[in-house]
Amino acid sequence: MTRISVLLLAVLALLAAGCGGDDGGDDAASATGGSTGASGEALPKEQFIAKGDAICQSLQPRAQALGREAQELANVSLDDPKTAKAAAAIWQKQAQLVKELKTRFDALGPAPDGEETTVRDFRTDIAQALTLGRQIATALDQGDDPSALVGDYTQLIDQSNATAGLIGFKVCGQS
Questions:
Q1: pLDDT (tens digit, 9 = 90+) per residue, 76-125?
Q2: In this model, does residue 130 exceed pLDDT 90?
Q3: Distance, CA of 50 to CA of 43 (rounded, Å)
Q4: How far apart are CA 5 and CA 172, in angstroms?
Q5: How far apart are CA 152 and CA 79, in angstroms?
Q6: How far is CA 101 from the centre of its chain?
Q7: Domain residue spans in the chain?
Q8: In the chain, what is the greatest distance between 2 CA atoms, to the nearest angstrom?
Q9: How many helical (H) and strand (E) elements, i.e. helices and strands, does the chain have?
């Protein structure tokens, strides 16, 4: 497997993890209306989960398009500067998607009672994924090898998936 394949598979890993893998149903998408909880009052757990899953589901089309873009480069060597720049652009788009995920999750407000630690951990994972995604894009753009960062990113996504499951998400964190 070429180096570019490994780097771009990590993009696909986050897309599956952060934005879920279930395309079916509109139940979660309909949960986006009403209060976001950003006023300082925590949403009930069921509502927090529904709204969080709706966020992930709404980002799926963009995540899937980015995944297809990454797959197109998967068998091309990073030794070609044009390929490295294209891979950097994919990681920049990835970082933008993660930034939107973070912003929208932060807008949900405080964690439901009893979920403070797991929700904080999940939000921390998203923030770290954003930082690592940006670092990977920069490294690729500068012609550096981001393999170590990609390894950290992949471990973070595995951790984030586990945390999402502990919260009770049915879309977010599911591959």
A1: 776 778 888 888 998 999 899 999 999 999 999 999 999 999 999 999 99
A2: yes
A3: 10
A4: 24
A5: 22
A6: 7
A7: 3-167
A8: 52
A9: 5, 0
